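tool_call: predict_structure(chain=1)
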Amino acid sequence: MASDRIPALFERKHARFEGIRGDSELRVLFDDGRWLEGPAYSPQGRFVLFSDIPNDRVLRYDEVSGRVDVWEHPAGFYNGRTVDPQGRFVSCRQGDRSVVRREHDGSTSVVADSYDGHRLNSPNDVVVRSDGSVWFTDPTYGIQSDYEGHRGDEELGSRNVYRWSADAGLIAVCTTLTQPNGLAFSPDESLLYVTDSERRTITVFAVDGVDDDRLAPGRELVSGEVAFDGLRIDTVGRLWVATTEGIHVYDPDGTVLGLLRLPETAANLEFGGPQRNLLYITATTRLYVIRVSVEGAKRLQRSHR
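tool_result:
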């Protein structure tokens, strides 16, 4: 396990990055992964779950004790995850091509594993809106080889963004991206941001008013720079995006503001801690944490139908 520290290299790329800062060092909490992904923070338990996909294990970092332990192994090749408004982990499991939810009694429920009579590709990342709907991406990375899952056939012929709700079931709300990957809502949940790792783009979609139908065509917000993976949003709507260089920060208008440079490719990130200002980063072999001067966006409280 690790307790190393490395310098925190913040690079300003726009004047609006002024005031965004953090500790002078990043702490290395874990350094024995092959490809780490999917950090999600439990406010109730004060711990982070994260995936080591090729090693087929889920790990747990305890924020109080500082320990990292194996949570589940073998696990089914989990990738991204989130925590829903009820405090349950909702996760993408590439091994059996499903999105699952861990219930409060410890059991696992399948949210989705097929669409229109065909198996999903390999669900990658997931968010839960405050109305309880589950939104996830479904590229093909987990079925391309046996490295992050099981080599298999692409049955759907497209790589989609899905919305699941108890009322409407599973709907493909976007079918036009090449390899949709990370996704996140704006603080008011009116916008959905989706990265496409193959196109090297971030696309923004209007969500309000969409119930059971497809999203209207999105607007390409960022393109042609580094390869994008997971992302999170802070309280003022800035995008914090895992990239091949570290964590890029973008204004909601698409302007790149700055970069927290890392020595290895970043896969995903999560805001945690009691004040939501601890930035946890999964970056290839390591789990990092740094306290920053911003807070992650808080969930809205909506009435449930």
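agent: The CA atoms of residues 60 and 109 lie 20 Å apart. Proceeding to next step.
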